């Protein structure tokens, strides 16, 4: 029996990861990451100086290595000057990652396996909301400490969280409903413009929208209303796509939704009262990290509950066989309409957050490139999976930032990666996997 168990243990890198993290609950891993972020705050700058790095790495040393490869590429193609000394930055960045993240994480997780499992077991006796809040508190603490060292980290984290919400909202349609929609950047644009119209029009003196209509204290408390207003406007605009397309079958949704995207973009480009092609700027700085974190958590919770509800199961039935679902008394048209409007609502919410993070929007931000980006996140992470949407959004967002120094090569590498995923994992990396909250937060130790 012992020999069988030993034979079943994963080999190689998987075996090493399983040895260190296999028995650790999520709480222990979060504690390990929190320890790493505190450790980096203490020694990060000094360690970077000792390792002869120009500055402390901002994204785990990956951007530093990318800059070196970009320099070598420019030397080979353009003959641009390149200092050979910078080659040392690659191994030094790897050492930095090992000293700050990899080694401390493994040590803390191994040392806290038993107490973390004991705490996780105790938390299971409490209401699920308490357990969830404890884990989310640790996650937010990690984010808060990690971004303290760099404004670049802060803006990257904000945009990544928004990408998670946008990807989840599209996965409702393209994954759970089984249709192919191209209209999400349009919904995002409606949400961004309408929430900006709400906040800038009411509380900010602006050249485009005129003087503020209200000048009340604590105006930032109205920000949730602005986001909801943008989401509702996006849902209403989704009716333009849903009403004609769901009367038909086949690829008509893709065609109509793509047309909708161009219509929305053209509308805002020619709407001079909303800034035209120049857009709107001066949005209040209300999209702080806590606000975005809370909105995204609520969005993940709402979408996960939706896809696991009776309506979500009906949506899966429609995806698998619409005629059979109709024969089983499922109102297929109503089911698709509700799912489509629900997905559009959260895309509008994501657009409102984006507008107030960047504090500037124009129609060019919501074109084909944004569509390609969000589709890549959905299909890379995995269809019909909340886990997959989170993995896809985080992976593609961070990969885009890491490859930014490579300029044009970035748009060769990412599509090539997607092609390989489509060949070997056609449904994505983490497809058709339910997000079981109670199991995720539970203990992992085997008694």
Structure description:
The protein is mainly alpha-helical. It folds into two domains: 2-144, no CATH class; 150-439, ABC transporter involved in vitamin B12 uptake, BtuC, CATH 1.10.3470. The chain contains 19 helices and two strands. The protein has helices spanning 2-8, 12-21, 26-50, 62-78, 89-111, 113-123, 128-147, 151-176, 184-203, 223-245, 252-270, 289-308, 310-320, 322-327, 332-358, 368-381, 386-402, 410-424, 437-441, and strands at 280-281, 360-361. Strands 1-2 form a two-stranded antiparallel sheet. The protein starts with a helix and ends in a 6-residue tail after the last helix. Mean pLDDT is 85; it is low at 1-7.
- Largest sheet features: 2 strands, antiparallel
Domain count, please report it: 2
Helix content: over 70%
| Number of DSSP-assigned strands | 2
What global shape is seen?
A: globular
Helix-strand category:
mainly alpha
Q: Note the total helix count.
A: 19
User: How many angstroms does the end-to-end distance come to?
Assistant: 17 Å
How do the strands and helices of this protein lay out in sequence?
Blueprint: H1 2-8, H2 12-21, H3 26-50, H4 62-78, H5 89-111, H6 113-123, H7 128-147, H8 151-176, H9 184-203, H10 223-245, H11 252-270, E1 280-281, H12 289-308, H13 310-320, H14 322-327, H15 332-358, E2 360-361, H16 368-381, H17 386-402, H18 410-424, H19 437-441
Antiparallel strand pairs: 1-2
């Amino acid at each position: 029996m012992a020999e069988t168990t030993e034979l079943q243990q994963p080999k190689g890198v998987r075996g090493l990861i399983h040895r260190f993290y296999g028995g650790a609950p999520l709480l222990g891993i979060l504690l390990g990451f929190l320890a790493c972020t505190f450790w980096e705050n203490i020694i990060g700058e000094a360690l970077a100086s000792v390792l002869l790095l120009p500055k402390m790495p901002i994204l785990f040393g990956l951007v530093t290595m990318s800059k070196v490869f970009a320099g070598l590429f420019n030397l080979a193609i353009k003959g641009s000057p390149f200092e050979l000394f910078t080659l040392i930055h690659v191994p030094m960045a790897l050492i930095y990652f090992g000293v700050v993240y990899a080694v401390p994480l493994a040590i803390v997780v191994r040392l806290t396996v038993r107490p973390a499992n004991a705490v996780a077991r105790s938390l299971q006796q409490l209401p699920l909301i308490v357990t969830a809040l404890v884990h989310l508190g640790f996650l937010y603490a990690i984010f808060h400490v990690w971004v303290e060292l760099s404004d670049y980290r802060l803006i990257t984290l904000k945009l990544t969280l928004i990408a998670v919400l946008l990807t989840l909202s599209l996965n409702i349609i393209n994954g759970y409903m089984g249709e192919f929609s191209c209209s999400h950047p349009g919904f995002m644009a409606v949400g961004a413009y309408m929430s900006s119209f709400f906040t800038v029009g009411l509380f900010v003196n602006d050249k485009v929208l005129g003087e503020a209509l209200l000048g009340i204290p604590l105006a930032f408390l109205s920000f949730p209303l602005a986001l909801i207003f943008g989401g509702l406007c996006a849902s209403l605009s989704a009716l333009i796509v849903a009403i004609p397309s769901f009367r038909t079958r086949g690829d008509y949704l893709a065609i109509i939704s793509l047309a909708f995207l161009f219509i929305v973009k053209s509308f805002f480009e020619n709407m001079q009262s909303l800034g035209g092609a120049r857009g709107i700027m001066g949005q209040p700085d209300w999209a702080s990290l806590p606000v975005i974190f809370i909105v995204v958590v609520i969005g993940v919770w709402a979408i996960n509950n939706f896809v696991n509800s009776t309506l979500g199961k009906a949506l899966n039935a429609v995806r698998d066989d619409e005629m059979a679902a109709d024969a089983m008394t499922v109102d297929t048209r109503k089911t698709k309409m509700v799912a489509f409007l629900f997905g559009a609502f959260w895309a509008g919410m994501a657009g409102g957050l984006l507008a107030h993070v960047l504090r500037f929007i124009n129609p060019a931000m919501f074109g084909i490139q944004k569509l390609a980006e969000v589709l890549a996140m959905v299909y890379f992470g995995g269809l019909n999976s909340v886990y997959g949407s989170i993995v896809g959004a985080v992976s593609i967002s961070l990969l885009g930032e890491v490859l930014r120094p490579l300029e044009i090569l970035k748009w060769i590498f990412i599509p090539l990666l997607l092609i390989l995923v489509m060949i070997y994992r056609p449904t994505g990396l983490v497809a058709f996997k339910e997000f079981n909250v109670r199991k995720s937060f539970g203990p992992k130790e085997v008694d």
